[in-house]
Write a structure and sequence with these properties.
Layout (H helix, E strand, L loop, with lengths): L10 H13 L5 H10 L1 H7 L6 H9 L5 H14 L7 E10 L7 E2 L1 H24 L5 H27 L13 E2 L6 E5 L2 E13 L5 E7 L8 H14 L12 E4 L6 H8 L4 E4 L4 H4 L12 H10 L12 E3 L4 E3 L5 E11 L2 E8 L1 H5 L4 H4 L10 E5 L1 H5 L3 H10 L1 H7 L2 H15 L10 H23 L2
Parallel strand pairs: 1-7, 7-8
Antiparallel strand pairs: 1-5, 2-3, 4-5, 5-6, 9-10, 10-11, 11-12, 12-13
């Protein structure tokens, strides 16, 4: 058995100092250490000890094992005070910049090309020196420093490619990796592209207490729903919250970023009354006919790409005769049947294809084909009778979300979850992550959410 001495600083004191620092927007360990030296509030909480910034950073980095039970303890206190509701839960993600540069991101192929460019630049410096022996000592020193920097960067890429496996996306294609923090990912936000993590949180609508929190890097938002809900149920079991039934079922809302057939199938067995919108639900709502309000950043970008472009024809614009199994395109040209019982989104369809000679000379080509010039005729498919009878979970959710009750329940989502992220990132200034690696970043994100919950608890006691 290895014997170790006491910690240099009391863990309880360190935790209080860190939570106090985060609550005041001091997320840098250096700034927290400085505050312990000259801020009377921090001096009082710390007992007038001045921990070094490396001790603070190290303490946060090792919190990943202790943060889960601590998070649950605070939730139990919140529940005892009656702060956790049983009416509605909402899930969403908050994209935050990580302690990694997006300039060091790329697929293995892209990183390999970058390494070659760096090596060529380094070689050009040597060639220039060989061709110009009369360079001054000052210029020669600068060039050597630049060469050393280029070689160091090239070696960094070489080491990364040799020690890591290439990441593959959901479709099996290579996706970008990051050399500085391989667990992070490039993400598009309203303020541009960042290298960071997506902090997923689930909270209730009564006092906006966060019940589940986890940070995800190179994982799509759709893939976070199942583990998040599983973890939520574990927290509810610890709080001794029974899943009500019938009309008292807890409602669960999420935006279109979480909508998928697999997720809706999972949520159908979850015991929640689920409302998850698709990315077309606003178009079907007459209240948003002339609105430019977007549910997600993806929806906003998709709308901007469509601006100024003619509406593309959909299957409803084609003349399909189910009895004779024939089809004519919007221009009146006959199409040939290219497949029966074709699988599409887990449904059986009949597929038709336009003749290439007709499509090439069609005056409606811009409204029908996405990327002229074309190499094949336009394809369109129609659901078979059996597929129509067997509605997918996505189709069922569309019917539910478009009902007056569904729209009313889903409209409560924004007021439930968005103020939480506003409080964390804007009011508290916890708008970026200072650590690297999935475990460490996840612990820091949970500490951010812990600060939010403690503040709610504090306000309830006044």
């Amino acid at each position: 058995m290895i014997k170790r001495g006491a910690a240099a600083y009391s863990p309880a004191v360190m935790l209080k100092v860190i939570l106090l620092g985060y609550a005041h927007g001091l997320i840098s360990s250096r700034r927290i250490a400085k505050a312990c030296e000259n801020n009377i509030l921090f001096m009082s909480v710390s007992g007038d000890v001045q921990p070094h910034y490396t001790s603070i950073a190290g303490f946060v980095a090792k919190m990943h094992e202790q943060i889960e039970p601590l998070f649950t303890q605070v939730l139990m206190i919140c529940d005892e005070e009656g702060l956790i509701g049983r009416n509605m839960f909402a899930i969403d993600g908050c994209k935050m910049k990580s302690n990694a540069s997006k300039e060091w991101s790329g697929t293995f192929d892209e990183l390999g090309r970058k390494r070659v460019k760096l090596q060529r630049a380094s070689q050009r410096i040597i060639e220039r020196h060989q061709a110009q022996d009369g360079l001054s000592e000052e210029l020669a020193t600068q060039d050597l420093k630049q060469k050393e920097k280029l070689d160091k960067s090239a070696d960094k890429i070489t080491t990364f490619l040799a020690t890591h496996k290439e990441k593959l996306g959901s479709q099996g294609k290579p996706v970008k990796s990051n050399i500085t923090d391989p667990d992070s990912a490039k993400m598009t936000t309203s303020k541009g592209t960042i290298q960071g993590y997506n902090g997923i949180a689930i909270n209730d609508d009564k006092h906006q207490i966060i019940l589940q929190a986890k940070a995800w890097g190179s994982v799509g938002e759709q893939q976070t729903l199942k583990p998040a809900v599983t973890q939520l149920k574990q927290q509810l079991d610890k709080l001794h919250v029974d899943m009500p039934s019938n009309e008292h079922t807890i409602k669960f809302t999420a935006d279109s970023g979480f909508n998928s057939e697999a997720n809706l199938a999972f949520m159908a067995q979850s015991g929640f009354d689920v409302y998850i919108a698709d990315n077309q639900f606003r178009k079907r709502n007459p209240l948003f006919k002339d609105s430019e309000t977007y549910e997600t950043e993806q929806e906003k970008r998709r709308f901007k790409r469509r601006q100024g472009k003619p509406r593309l024809f959909t299957s409803s614009d084609f003349h399909y005769d189910e009895t004779t199994q024939t089809c004519r395109c919007p221009a009146g040209n006959d199409m040939w049947r290219s497949g029966i019982n074709v699988k599409s989104y887990n449904q059986e369809c009949t597929r038709f294809c336009g003749y290439l000679k007709d499509c090439k000379n069609c005056p409606l080509q811009q409204q029908c084909m996405r990327k002229p010039p074309i190499k094949t005729g336009r394809q369109v498919q129609f659901k078979n009778d059996e597929s129509r009878k067997k509605l997918s979970y996505i189709d069922k959710m569309k019917v539910k979300i478009d009902s007056p009750m569904g729209r009313r329940q889903y409209s409560k989502r924004l007021g439930c979850i968005e103020p939480v992220f506003g409080n964390i990132t804007v009011n508290k200034g916890m708008n970026k992550l200072t650590l690297r690696g999935q475990e460490k970043v996840n612990a820091q994100w949970q500490l951010y959410c812990l600060v939010h919950n403690i503040e709610k608890l504090q306000h309830s006691m006044h």
